[in-house]
Amino acid sequence: MKSGFQNTRATLSRTAAAAGRAARVACHIERPLPEAAKVALVDRNIAYYNARGHLVLADAGKAFFNDIFRETPVGGSG
């Protein structure tokens, strides 16, 4: 018989897996997220994996991010 902690842990694990599947479906991602990130970002030189295995934006990715999230004055053009 599982303890309450083990049951909670198993439930959280199933919930996280279901949430991951739901997010991939909602975003039309047909692959596991790490593979999708590699195809969408690394293979296009937008990001790279550093020595610690973390996904890091390359200069091109930083410029793209800044363009997308640049604040534009209300009613202004840039």
Give a brief outline of the structure.
This protein is mainly α and 78 residues long. It folds into two domains: 1-30; 31-78, no CATH class.
Instruction: Count every beta strand, where a strand is a DSSP E run of 2 or more residues.
Output: 2
- Our measurement of the CA-to-CA distance between the termini, rounded to an integer number of angstroms, reads 63 Å
How does the helix and strand content classify structurally? mainly alpha
* Portion in helices: 55-70%
Put simply, the count of helices is: 3
Q: Show unreliable segments.
A: none
User: Rg, please?
Assistant: 19 Å
Give the oligomer, counting copies of the same chain as homo and different chains as hetero: single chain
Total count of domains: 2
Keyword list:
78 residues, 8% strand, two-stranded antiparallel ribbon, mainly alpha, 3 helices, 2 strands, extended, 2 domains
Describe the fold and architecture:
This protein has 78 residues and is mainly alpha-helical. The protein folds into two domains: 30 residues; 48 residues, no CATH class. Helices cover 56% and strands 8% of the residues. It contains three helices and two strands; from the N terminus they run ααββα. Strands 1-2 form a two-stranded antiparallel ribbon. The longest helix has 23 residues. It is extended. The relative contact order is 0.07. The model has no long low-confidence stretch (mean pLDDT 76).
